[in-house]
C-alpha cells in the first residue's frame, strides 16, 4: 500500500490532546495505523464566501497538480528506457523519498508566503505547475522527435542489412543492390570536370573479357583505358569508366544490351560522410540530451509533487475552518494504515472517535450524500466519501505498477 490518510479534527482542550487521543486509539492501542502530525502554518483565513469558493477551486487544482506530477513521473520512466528499474530512486521530493517528505512535511515559506491570501497562494501553485506542464510538452516533443528519428534510422539500417543479405544470394549478385558508398573512394572518380564524368558498372565475372573488349566501343566519347576494377564479390565486379556527359544515356543502353549494368551513383563526399555519420550523430545527440532531460524531469517532478502536497495542506486548512469554525483550532494528522485488512476497522474506529462532530455523517460510509448536501465546503471534497472529520487520501503510487513504500 502507498495510501495515506490526511485528516483533521478540532482541538479538544488543546490540539496536542487531539493528537494524543488519535494516536493512542489507532496507533498504540489497536496498531491500526502509523501516525504523524501534519504541520500547517497559520494561514490567512479570509471571509466565509472566499473559503467556500476556494474550496471548490482547490479540489480542481488538487487533481490538476497531481496529474502533472504523474505525467512527469511516467515520462521519466519512458526516458530511462532500460534503466526504468531506477525510476523509484529518481522520484524524489526535495532530495528525499516521497514517504519521507510527506511524513515530515514542512511548509515552504519562501515559495508560498503565508502572509498572502489563500487565493494568492493557490494562484502561485497554479501558475508554477502550468508553466512546468508547458515546458514538459516542449521538451518531450523535442526529445521524442530525436528518438523517433534515431529509431527510424536504426530500422532503415536493419532493413538495408537484410536487403544486402538477400542480395548476396540473388542470382544477379549483391553489387546490384548494395550501398556503393561503402566501396568507392574519391580517387576513383573524375570530379569537377565540365565535360567528363565517371560511371560505375556492374559486370558479371563470366563477362569480364567481354567488358574489356567492348567498353571503349559501346559508344563514342569513351576515354580509352579508363576502366578500373575497384571491387568484386563472388559473382560480379564493380568497374569504373570515364566518358563524356553527352553520351551517358547511349552508353547505358548499349551496356544493358551486353549484360553490363550501370549503377546510378553520384559521388558526393559530404553526403556520403553525412550518411555514414547520421546514425552516430543521432545517437550522440540523444545521449547529450538524455542527461539534462533526466535532471529537468527530476527537478520538476519534485516541484510538482511538493506543490501537490501544499495544495493538500491548503484543502485541509480550508475545509477545517469551514467545518469547525473560528477561531482556527484543529489538528491535522497523517495516517498510514498498517495493513490493507485494517482499513475497514480503522475507518470504524475513526468514525466512533469523531461521530460527535457531525451526526449527519452516520457511520461514515460513502452513501450519505442526501444527508450532507448542505454541509459547507463539501463541494470542495471532489469525492463521494464524507466523514465527520476532514479526510483526504494521498496515494504515492505516481506511476502505475510502481510501489512506493513508507520509510
From TrEMBL:
It comes from the Eukaryota. CDD domains: V-ATPase_C (cd14785). Keywords: Hydrogen ion transport, Ion transport, Transport. One of its GO terms (molecular function) is proton-transporting ATPase activity, rotational mechanism. SUPFAM superfamilies: Vacuolar ATP synthase subunit C. One of its GO terms (cellular component) is vacuolar proton-transporting V-type ATPase, V1 domain. Belongs to the V-ATPase C subunit family. Subunit of the V1 complex of vacuolar(H+)-ATPase (V-ATPase), a multisubunit enzyme composed of a peripheral complex (V1) that hydrolyzes ATP and a membrane integral complex (V0) that translocates protons. V-ATPase is responsible for acidifying and maintaining the pH of intracellular compartments and in some cell types, is targeted to the plasma membrane, where it is responsible for acidifying the extracellular environment. Subunit C is necessary for the assembly of the catalytic sector of the enzyme and is likely to have a specific function in its catalytic activity. V-ATPase is a heteromultimeric enzyme made up of two complexes: the ATP-hydrolytic V1 complex and the proton translocation V0 complex. The V1 complex consists of three catalytic AB heterodimers that form a heterohexamer, three peripheral stalks each consisting of EG heterodimers, one central rotor including subunits D and F, and the regulatory subunits C and H. The proton translocation complex V0 consists of the proton transport subunit a, a ring of proteolipid subunits c9c'', rotary subunit d, subunits e and f, and two accessory subunits. This is V-type proton ATPase subunit C. It comes from Darwinula stevensoni.
Amino acid at each position: 500500500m502507498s495510501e495515506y490518510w490526511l485528516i483533521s479534527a478540532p482541538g479538544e482542550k488543546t490540539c496536542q490532546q487531539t493528537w494524543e487521543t488519535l494516536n493512542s486509539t489507532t496507533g498504540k492501542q489497536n496498531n491500526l495505523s502509523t501516525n504523524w502530525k501534519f504541520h500547517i502554518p497559520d494561514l490567512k483565513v479570509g471571509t466565509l464566501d472566499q473559503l467556500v469558493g476556494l474550496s471548490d477551486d482547490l479540489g480542481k487544482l488538487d487533481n490538476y497538480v497531481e496529474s502533472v506530477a504523474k505525467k512527469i513521473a511516467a515520462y521519466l520512466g519512458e526516458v530511462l528506457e532500460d534503466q526504468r528499474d531506477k525510476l523509484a530512486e529518481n522520484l524524489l521530493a526535495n532530495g528525499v523519498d516521497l514517504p519521507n517528505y510527506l511524513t515530515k512535511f514542512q511548509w515552504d515559506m519562501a515559495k508560498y508566503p503565508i502572509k498572502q491570501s489563500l487565493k494568492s497562494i493557490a494562484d502561485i501553485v497554479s501558475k508554477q505547475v502550468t508553466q512546468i506542464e508547458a515546458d514538459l510538452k516542449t521538451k518531450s516533443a523535442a526529445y521524442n522527435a530525436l528518438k523517433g528519428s534515431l529509431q527510424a534510422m536504426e530500422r532503415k539500417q536493419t532493413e538495408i542489412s537484410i536487403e544486402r543479405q538477400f542480395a548476396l544470394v540473388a542470382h544477379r549478385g549483391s553489387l546490384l543492390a548494395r550501398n556503393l558508398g561503402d566501396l568507392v573512394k574519391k580517387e576513383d572518380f573524375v570530379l569537377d570536370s565540365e565535360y567528363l564524368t565517371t560511371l560505375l558498372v556492374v559486370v558479371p565475372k563470366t563477362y569480364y573479357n567481354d567488358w574489356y573488349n567492348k567498353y571503349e566501343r559501346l559508344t563514342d566519347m569513351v576515354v580509352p583505358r579508363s576502366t578500373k576494377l575497384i571491387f568484386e564479390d563472388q559473382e560480379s565486379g564493380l568497374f569504373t569508366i570515364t566518358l563524356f556527359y553527352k553520351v551517358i544515356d547511349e552508353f547505358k543502353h548499349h551496356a544493358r544490351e551486353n549484360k553490363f549494368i550501370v549503377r546510378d551513383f553520384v559521388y558526393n563526399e559530404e553526403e556520403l560522410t553525412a550518411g555514414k555519420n547520421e546514425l552516430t550523430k543521432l545517437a550522440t545527440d540523444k545521449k547529450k540530451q538524455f542527461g539534462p532531460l533526466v535532471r529537468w524531469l527530476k527537478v520538476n517532478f519534485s516541484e510538482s509533487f511538493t506543490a501537490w502536497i501544499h495544495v493538500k495542506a491548503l484543502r485541509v486548512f480550508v475545509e477545517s475552518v469551514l467545518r469547525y469554525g473560528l477561531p482556527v483550532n484543529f489538528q491535522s494528522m497523517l495516517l498510514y494504515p498498517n495493513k490493507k485488512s485494517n482499513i475497514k476497522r480503522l475507518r470504524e474506529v475513526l468514525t466512533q472517535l469523531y461521530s460527535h462532530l457531525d451526526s449527519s455523517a452516520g457511520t461514515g460510509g460513502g452513501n450519505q450524500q442526501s444527508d450532507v448536501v448542505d454541509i459547507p465546503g463539501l463541494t470542495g471534497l471532489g469525492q463521494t466519501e464524507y466523514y465527520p472529520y476532514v479526510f483526504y487520501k494521498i496515494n504515492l503510487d505516481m506511476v502505475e505498477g510502481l510501489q512506493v513504500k513508507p520509510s
